[in-house]
Design goal:
about 25% strand, Dna Ligase, domain 1, four-stranded parallel β-sheet, 3 domains, D-amino Acid Aminotransferase, Chain A, domain 1, alpha+beta, Rossmann fold
Length: about 300
């Protein structure tokens, strides 16, 4: 098979592992810088050009679309789909998962456990917004934040009011979430391929840090998840429409709560913590499912 990996940096661990796994299984692999693609949008022969040449003959692509280039990146994925190329994660699913508010609303509609979340535009009703999530301490999140950036813990009501007003003064969109005390600084990343949890790790933040992101100095270890956690992760990925996903869960007194569904989950932490060949599992999934013109969400957005 001829497989394209959409990635800005061929030296990134996840990109290298996917390329190595594909080559090991005898496939032809090309790492394509998403932002250097340009497109001919026509009804009779849509095409993608790259470094002066037309990209042709691809059987499948693996989108590794960073949050900062979601708009252009999903446009490129969509163009590949128009050309009949199979994408392991489809453009609609990536867009859906990247919109934090939309993804939470979709999960909520299907009854998935979530931390109580508030969203508002005006700061005039900040008091009621704080009350909505059971008061301080609470977590304030930038809608556009990634890897723990733009996620702040407000430990008192006064701090929460000041923080919310400051963010809104900058005209940025924020979510306000209940702080789940029993899981402070700890979460679980479930890695799913083809609707199955193939690996899971527990992430712990540094001492005094409530965020567990590995990019912020957190540590990861192998964890055995419960049937409820497994079922929640599978349902969350399916609701987003993602074939490859990282579902982040909190363990709470009410059961598993979904924090986020990631459409481009990193491989370094999960492979190191679990000693599993997750990259190989993704390539194997593509081998079994890649077909020309196979787009489940065709016509749905």
């Amino acid at each position: 098979m001829k497989i394209g990996i959409l990635s800005r940096n061929p030296q990134l661990y996840s990109t290298r592992r996917l390329a190595e796994a594909a080559e090991l299984r005898g496939h032809e692999v090309f790492v394509i810088d998403t932002l250097k693609c340009y497109m001919n949008i026509s009804s009779d022969h849509p095409s993608i050009h790259y470094q002066g040449e037309t990209l042709e003959g691809f059987d499948a692509i693996i989108p590794r679309i960073g949050a900062s280039i979601t708009f252009y990146g999903t446009a490129v994925v969509r163009q590949f789909e128009m050309m009949g190329v199979y994408s392991v994660n489809e453009s609609v699913a990536i867009t859906r998962s990247r919109d934090k508010l939309r993804s939470l609303q979709l999960l909520s509609r299907k009854g998935i456990g979530l931390p109580t979340t508030g969203f508002a535009h005006s700061v005039k009703d900040t008091g009621d917004l704080i009350k909505m999530v059971d008061g301080a301490p609470l977590v304030v999140k930038l809608l556009e934040g990634t890897q723990g950036i733009g996620v702040v813990l407000a430990e008192t009501r006064k701090a929460a009011e000041s923080l919310i007003e400051a963010f809104r003064g900058l005209d940025v969109n924020i979510l306000v979430q209940k702080f789940v005390k029993e899981s402070a600084g700890v979460d679980i990343r479930c890695f799913l391929v083809g609707g199955k949890v193939v690996a899971a790790m527990m992430r712990k933040g540094e001492e005094g840090e409530f965020r567990s992101n590995l990019h912020r100095g957190g540590s990861a270890s192998l964890v055995k998840i419960t049937p409820a956690e497994r079922a929640t992760a599978v349902r969350a990925a399916n609701i987003m429409g993602l074939s490859v996903a990282g579902v982040d869960l909190l363990r709470s007194e009410k059961g598993p709560l979904v924090l986020e569904v990631n459409s481009s989950p990193g491989l370094r932490g999960i492979e190191s913590a679990t000693d599993k060949d997750v990259a190989g599992m993704i390539i194997e999934y593509i081998e079994k499912n890649a077909k020309h013109g196979k787009t489940r969400t065709k016509g749905k957005g």
